[in-house]
Amino acid sequence: MATPAELAQLHAVLEPDELLHLQRLLGSWSLLADLSFSDLVLVVPVSGLEGGPGGFQMVVLGQIRPNNRPTRLNQDLVGQSPSEDDWSIVSEALRRGELVRGDIEGISPAGPIASEAIPVRFGHKVIGVLVRIGREEVRPATSSYERTYLDAFDRLAAMVSESAFPFPEADVGTEEAPRVGDGVVVVDDEGRVEFASPNAMNAFHRMGVYSLPEGRRFVDLGVEESAVEWALTTARPVVEEVERRPDVMVLVHCIPLVTHGSVTGAVILLRDVTDVRRLDRLLLSKDAAIREVHHRVKNNLQTISSLLRLQARRVPAKAGREALHEAERRVRSIALVHEILSREPGDQVSFDEIVVSLVQMANDSVVGPSKVEIGVEGDLGDLPADVATPLAVTLAELLQNAVQHAFVVDRRPLRTGRPTKRKAAGVKNQVGRVGVMLAHDSDRLAIEVRDDGIGLPKGFDIERTNSLGLSIVRDLVVSQLDGSIEMRGVPKVDGGGTLVRIEVPTGPRR
Fold first, then answer.
1. Pairwise CA distance, residues 195 & 202, whole Å
2. Which residues, listed in sequence order, are joined to residue 113 by a DSSP beta bridge?
3. Which residue, 23, 86, 190, 281, has most beta carbons within 10 Å?
4. What DSSP line would sit under 203-222, residue for residue?
5. What 3-state class would DSSP assign to 251?
6. Cα end-to-end distance, the chain, whole Å
7. Whole-structure pTM value
8. Measuring CA to CA, how many Å separate 153 from each of 72, 172, 265, 346?
């Protein structure tokens, strides 16, 4: 379904400010629908098209149903072009720029529905019509709260036709914003309460106020009234959170009522958000506890890493020292993930930060005359911790394997199947290059590590390798991440070297 902005671009000629005004109206008109107990439809004229002498072709830009009454519209009208014959009150309102009452046909099998068309102005220009479907006259038997709601709607509707509502730079309502059903208070131009709905009285009771509020100001009731004062003084809406008694929070949304430029009162929506704030505090506390756990895990892993490094210095055999250094590097790779988790909320990790640290670790491990440059292109974005951890270990192993074994020449085979060190490629100012390519689309992660070194021996197969590092990589990718790994030599005509490609699905794993 097209958005209001897309519909406006397709059918109407509206300046950016005019479109923004209509979007603000769509963002705040749930208040109007609930106060009027009616369905509302926003209609704009189609650009440059006239249905007849003085007539209009129209398109429905938006539709909303009330939360406190059954809807009169079972169909979705958004995007439709109403007939001028059936919606004559709309074309009349567009032409005259005045509120027009009458019947609308063609939207209900029960027949015509009493409605009213309210012109929507921006500045001095009528840019649309707000149609109230199902207008009902107030009978003497109607309850006081219904009369008050309808009167407030009429005052706000007049503001719509005067370009005073919605308010400039008004924020679009969020899920947490108070609604009419949460509680309504109407005050006069001096801030004295004229009406408080039953749900508003419940909010007052939660704040410890049990006396009748009618005829009194908020400050007389012992309730903070800075939001009310500010709204009445500036003629701008105010949202403020009021705290009363231990752990009682009430969200106050004050909407000034303006007539011909003068503030004549305000509609105040109250919502008790005590339970919401309590849950927020619990979540913050839980989040802090989780980050502290990651911080301690990171510290413990760093301690283990230091112990392995110290132990390696005391092992006389070269093979033993290398094994301990490899284990220490793997532990450090895991610690990187927990370090980021200890700083950021949630269980998502920015893998870019990990890659930077892994590249630095690989560069620090280059010794002797060899010169190796590592470049990175692309990114994987934010990843879940249970994916980032094995990927970090995997990438660390591949980079370490490349910088240690790709740029040396000898006849003796290493565990990887590559020759071991005798003469470094970095001599004579030659530089070995390792490239890392990262990609993340809707259904997979892809990592490529390519070097321009000596390549792989004939017949090499990662499935049958004796290298502990490559075996760890294969098991992490295939068993833990349900991915695939390919490791092959690159032909000399393509630059030579070795290419490792890993693909990991982003959907649910086995």
1. 14
2. 104
3. 23
4. HHHHTT--S--TT--TGGGT
5. strand
6. 35
7. 0.58
8. 18, 19, 13, 43
Verify that 287 and 377 share a domain, yes or no.
Answer: no
Write down the pLDDT at residue 265. 95
Q: Which two tokens stand for residue 248?
A: 């009682």
Per residue in 79-128, pLDDT tens? 888 888 889 999 999 989 999 999 988 888 878 888 999 999 999 999 99
Instruction: Let me know the angle formed at the C-alpha of 231 by 64 and 262, rounded to the nearest 5 degrees.
Output: 90
- For residue 248, the domain's CATH number is 3.30.450.20
Residues 6+ apart with CB under 8 A from 78: 1, 7, 60, 61, 62, 63
Question: What is the model's pLDDT at position 289?
Answer: 64
* Structural contact between residues 434 and 450, judged by C-beta atoms closer than 8 angstroms: yes
Distance of alpha carbon 378 from alpha carbon 476, whole angstroms: 22
Residues 266 and 279 in one domain: no
For 310-330, how does the pLDDT look when each residue is reduced to its tens digit (9 = 90+)? 777 777 777 777 777 777 777
Contacts of residue 455, Cβ cutoff 8 Å, sequence gap at least 6: 489, 490, 496, 497, 498
CB 359 within 8 A of CB 400: no
Q: 339 and 370 in one domain? A: no
